[in-house]
Specification:
rod-shaped, mainly alpha, disordered N terminus, about 0% strand, about 180 residues
């Protein structure tokens, strides 16, 4: 197949990257396709990540956001302090303490919360790492697009300069060699 009849993406791949179309990385193919269609390449990482995430992943992000906040820490501390005060001072005075010191039921609930919360936070951290990889990939695409567009602009400018120089040379009178 000649260069004139080659697939437009193949022509771009060969011209801009010096690669055959089957040698391109997925990001490179995507960038070249966007160049061919004259469409922008930049995308918001949060939007792309949200489109690709499952309900469980979004839920783990929300649980981690709540569990890792000062509001949660302060509220949880106040609830534990209230639990201890009620069971030690108030209810034990009437003989109705349901979890007296050493707070075995409270310890069970804290252990259960930690056992559930830890893997959820780890899932959220894994998702954040995936978001970071996605952000790096999208940044690469944008950088590659910018670099390729700059190369194309340089090429156009060089062609224009060459045309202008040719025009100037055509107007100059030819010097005849002196005998």
């Amino acid at each position: 197949m000649s260069n004139n009849t080659a697939h437009p993406l193949q022509q771009l791949a060969q011209h801009l990257l010096g690669k055959a179309i089957h040698e391109l990385e997925p990001e490179e193919s995507h960038v070249l396709e966007q160049i061919r269609q004259r469409r922008p390449i930049s995308r918001d990482v949060a939007d792309v990540s949200d489109q690709q995430s499952s309900f469980g992943e979004r839920l783990s992000d929300k649980v981690a956001a709540v569990g890792g906040s000062w509001t949660f820490i302060i509220s949880f501390g106040l609830i534990m302090l209230g639990w201890m005060l009620i069971n030690t001072d108030v209810l034990s005075h009437f003989g109705m303490a349901f979890d007296p010191y050493p707070y075995i039921f409270l310890n069970l609930m804290l252990s259960t919360l930690a056992a559930i919360q830890a893997p959820i936070i780890m899932m959220s951290q894994n998702r954040q790492a995936a978001k970071d990889r996605l952000a790096a990939s999208l940044d690469f695409e944008v950088n590659l697009r910018a670099e390729l567009e700059i190369m194309r602009l340089h090429e156009k400018i060089d062609q224009r300069i060459q045309q202008r120089l040719d025009q100037i040379l055509e107007r100059l009178p030819e010097k005849k060699p002196q005998d």
